[in-house]
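Hi V.,

You were right to ask for the full record rather than a summary. Here it is.
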Amino acid sequence: MTIAPAPTKLRHPEKARRPDNPPKRKPEWIRVKAPSSPEYHDTRKLMRELGLATVCEEAACPNIGECWKKKHATFMILGSICTRACAFCNVETGRPDLLDPHEPEKIAYAVGKLDLDHVVITSVDRDDLEDGGADQFVRVIEAIRAAAPGTTTEILTPDFQHKRGAVEAIAAARPDVFNHNLETVPRLYPTIRPGARYFHSLRLLAKVKEIDPACFTKSGLMVGLGETKEEIYQVMDDLRSADVDFLTIGQYLQPTIKHAAVDRFVTPDEFRSYERMAYGKGFLMVSATPLTRSSYHAGDDFRQLRDAREKALARTQA
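Predicted structure:
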């Protein structure tokens, strides 16, 4: 008797019927080496031993080899399965995991083990939870503060649509940096980020500043999806109207043939022009390169961000 093999679980079942988008060949300026350092393998082993997820792996970040060599991992809480189905994202979609009540303590332990002076915490979307997972963010921040009081915390949150009080609860926990990515220009939301709303995300960022003016706010954009320069400039203005301090801009890279296609590869010169424009519009900190991601060099960037604010305050008081 022949036994049929078990069906392969699809990582993105909602994309299975979409037409294929053969990926474009990457230009030389965004090719990276496969991770192979001992530090990379040590970091990976620690994540497995603790049962922790990282956005570095789940989102197929091209910088994982460089970051993990420095033992800089970005933790992803609330499980590894997302309730949204964004056209750009490689994180698995489907029925979410049960929450791990020990996740905050595990992350705090890992922060100490990796000797991190700055840590980034992100999550999947959890539309199934009454608070969207806000309480878990708060518990993680508190656990890190208790175990490693010298470590600064940066969070990268979902949009918490229809989750009353979620943003307020996290802001009250006073993370050092509150990041929420707009991801793309409003015209592309229906196809690239269909479950989100552009102006809701802008309002979230503005609300954080209203609750805690001392908190640094941050947002990120992908380019190469078909947006125009003028649309990016308008998003910069919108973010500054929400008093956002830090902007990241990076090249969109297509995870699989079922994801949104890369429209074009933006050149390093264009990224430099975005950086100049963003600084001209008043951002305290800008990171705009082909390989920029939200948590790429986050610790170094945070120190520069803090210095930039101090210099700006000194100028106003002079």
